[in-house]
Amino acid sequence: MSATHVYAGPSLDAEAVHALLPDAVIHPPVRHGDLTASPVGAGDRLVVLDGQFFQSASVRHKEICEVIARGAAVYGAASMGALRAAELGPYGMTGSGIVYRLYASGFIERDDEVALVHTEPDTGSRALTVALVSVRVALRRMVRRRVFGPDEEARLLAAAEELPFTARTWRGILHQAQGVSRTTSDAIRDLTRGPSVSWDIKTQDARSLLTRLALDPVPPAPASYAGVPTTVHMENWRRTTDAESRTLLTAAQIYADDYPELHHRTVLQLLTGETGKQDDDLDRLERYAVDRARQQGLLSGAGLAQWLSGEEASAAHEQHVIARALVRSYRWSCGLTPLPALAEAVRTAPGVTRLRELIADAEQLNAQLAARGYPLQRVSRAALHRHCLSRWDTTVLVPALYDRGFTDLDDLDSRAVPFAPHLGLADPPRLRLLDR
User: CA distances (Å), 103 to each of 51, 67, 78, 100, 134, in order?
Assistant: First the structure.
């Protein structure tokens, strides 16, 4: 059954959204990663009104394009939605409202035209400052009603533009502006004391779009979509949003003594296109991968050496050593999506039940430590590295983390921290994934 998903906040609160679209699925202002992880698909409608960009990374254009490619009808208005719709019209996003038209026409261009400070989503995303475009439109309308003239409008707008969006309030604008009459100041105060729907163009645009969608409950046929190629960044976004697979894979990389073996075989299958085949002949896989790499000119001495220890480099002519370098140098790239394959290899391994028990133990310990005032943010990276060296029975960290599928120390640090207290305090039992 189709659904309408609305990302809203300061432009229109949840109560107002429900009043206009009772069946809407309401989300807080959209952030980077939200749409990649969302269930929005064919036949659904996605409405972007508000989005974050200061508190967290803003929603990426290709995230929206991916939702359009799934077959959803995507609309934008009011704030972040208006900005993205103006940018993505050729790619199938439908814009609505005055703010959208101001962006689409080029009359306004700056991101901070729609930026403001608001409270957290759990307190209603209440606006604490005012958006520049809201000031711009409100002033223009007052001039048209002959409340004041163009000269005072220009002074007030200049004052608003000089203030950073984090400090832009009506009170601050009136204080900053020079040569504004008392009558004008009183008229602005009287107007802005009222509900935002009476003067804020962002709220008005948001309400107008939802009202129109309520009258047309059937989603339109998907707009013609100008395809956007999958990129390395999109693959990484997908990896980040698949939290369950990411946690399972990271735990396997940390705990399983035989994970390097599983990783080596799975990545060779990815590199050779042999995924999904039940083939236990590792020698054949390595020979195939090495032959393909040699045909493509990937086996230069300097290129191999950076992935091998000194002792390994002296045997760089051997098939297994070359295959090891290929696996270590493997990185995310277009068309190669290792997370599903690696996570599935772990998920179907005989020892996965014990691995899940270790994950649960680690999470329980983290909760106990947090309750005692020791959050994960206090985990020492040096301590994490010592725990990994001990667990992996090695004295050199970098080659070992490559063999376990971590791309570098930063990757290890960002993903392994949740398991550091468990490694250091609980002395978890040894685990082999592949043993029956």
Answer: 16, 22, 11, 5, 13
